[in-house]
Specification:
154 residues, seven-stranded antiparallel sheet, single chain, alpha+beta, 4 helices
Length: 154
């Protein structure tokens, strides 16, 4: 059997590195992974929920706090963790609000805040150690169901 030349070996190593980087940047992530390094739902001490009225609900803002002991907290985390989040690397500074509320969830954990926000648009913002934008399949139905769950607490 013929051995690979040095050029071919280098090319194979480069290809392997590219595949690993591609997997890291483009493979779906769990909610905890999407939130960023250090996020652990079991270490969250409180979640501040901000529902800012939009479209026909302008001025109807609601803010409340969930504790990890609240049954709604467990359901919220279960729903968030049930999906796989894909990184979105497009210019996503402009949002199209299709829900009646812009929702911001601030997870407080060991003196750090991790933020997850959505408005019905394909892009959802995640702010933790880094700021990034994620997306997922069937985002409209998923975001609507999360909003309905949270509005049940108002």
């Amino acid at each position: 059997m013929k051995q690979l030349s040095l050029k071919h070996k280098i090319a194979l190593v480069e290809l392997a590195v590219l595949i690993i980087l591609g997997c890291y940047f483009f493979l779906p992530k769990s909610f905890s992974q999407a939130m960023g390094k250090g996020f652990d739902p079991d270490q969250v001490t409180a979640v501040t929920v901000q529902l800012e009225g939009a479209r026909g609900k302008r001025g109807e803002d609601h803010t409340f706090t969930l504790s990890p002991t609240d049954p709604i907290y467990t359901e919220l985390i279960d729903r968030l963790e049930s999906r796989k989040y894909l990184p979105l690397y497009l210019n996503t500074t402009v949002r199209t609000t299709t829900l009646d509320y812009v929702t911001t969830l601030t997870f407080e954990q060991n003196g750090a805040d991790y933020i997850f926000s959505f408005c019905g648009d394909r892009a959802m913002d995640v702010k933790g150690v880094k700021t990034r934008t994620v997306q997922l399949k069937n985002y409209e139905a998923f975001q609507s169901s999360l909003l309905a769950l949270l509005l049940g607490q108002v």
